[in-house]
Amino acid sequence: MLPKFYQNCLESQLNPRQYRSIQILLYLLQNHKTVQIEKLSALFGLPIKYESRRRHIQRLLHLAQMSVKSLWFPLFKKILKQHYQKKKTCYVVIDRTQWRDRNIFMVSVVYKKRSLPIYWRILPKKGSSNFREQKALIKPILPLMKGYSFVVVGDREFGNIRLASWLDDKGIDYVLRTKSNKYIRGEGQDYQRINTIELAPGQSWYLAPVQLTKQKGFGKVALAGYRSKSKQLKQDEEGWYLLTNLGTTSAAIKAYKCRYGIEAMFKDCKTGGYNLEKCHANVKRLDSLILLITLAYSCTVLRGQKLKKMGIQSYISRLNELNRNTNRHSNFWVGLYGQAWICGMEFCRELVQELMQLTPNKLPFYQQGMRAMSLILSTL
Questions:
Q1: Which has the least CB within 10 A, 13, 117, 216, 339?
Q2: Phi-psi bin for 44: left (phi > 0), alpha (psi -120 to 50), beta?
Q3: Are residues 325 and 160 in contact, defined by beta-carbon separation less than 8 angstroms?
Q4: Smallest Cα–Cα separation from 91: which of 153, 164, 165, 171?
Q5: What are the boundaries of each domain within the chain?
Q6: pTM for the full model?
Q7: Is 82 within 8 Å of 111 (Cβ atoms)?
Q8: Closest of 316, 370, 365, 369 to residue 339, by C-alpha
Q9: Residue-wise pLDDT tens digits, 23-44
Q10: Which CATH class is domain 85-266?
């Protein structure tokens, strides 16, 4: 079951038959963690032949209404209104992930150390995106984010002067990591490579304004440098060189650290959750499947956060350990397996009841667990 505002949006765009079919597909995504059409067809409960079920799903994925702007944008506006304050800065992260010989190029907003997709494009190529593609990705989200304070964050692929200048012209804050071998020139100085400026472990600095690269026709930018004391990751050893208009190194570092939310989201959509990398669909079907994943994923993340606030996480997953700085399980994991626990109970209800009757001395604990299940059901 989807939250009420999800249901209202989907019902307004789809006819009753389409809406119920999409609900079934979302249920299968959540409980079987796959977007492979062959497997979804095998699991789809409609009592018709397998090949007819497969064609039914394929027709759904080709619907004109199955588009990010029709189904997801209205929902995303409501999520923004419910979970983000207009005066509080939110972080919009751009990145891409490889899918066979194509790229899924995505812009997302950070939520509780994860990212929620906003908009995406499927690029028919391997390798890095260019400025034209980056601008085409960001422009559609600007009306959605109007009135909200946000910072665009990107890794080294996006650390170019053209994107920085375009964002500046639009009045958008940004933090874009750039490559260390690029040239900069301060006022009255010669060009030098960024990596020639000392950046020791634990050190940071801020340079403004500087000329980035030797290309003409672009204005000056600010450059923040930061290198962590930690050596756990390769990027900790290399340091960060960040193009930014935020004004301080600390603000730029805080924003860039949020970028890892989109990497966690990509993992959830791949091996950590819905196994997107196993999908063999064509571009149109893939785009529709990503839309279904977005609906399922956002709903699950929000539900997981709600379950944690209810204080029933211990019935779904292991809690945090002493001396452990990060959560053992994310909101996505809690939301996903909270629903799976309920489904397991429903499927084996008679066996579970017989099992409980065999240990009557544990009845008080069972009653507490049943109450936890009823709270989870209230979020479905």
A1: 216
A2: beta
A3: no
A4: 153
A5: 85-266, 306-379
A6: 0.89
A7: no
A8: 316
A9: 999 999 988 888 999 999 999 9
A10: alpha beta
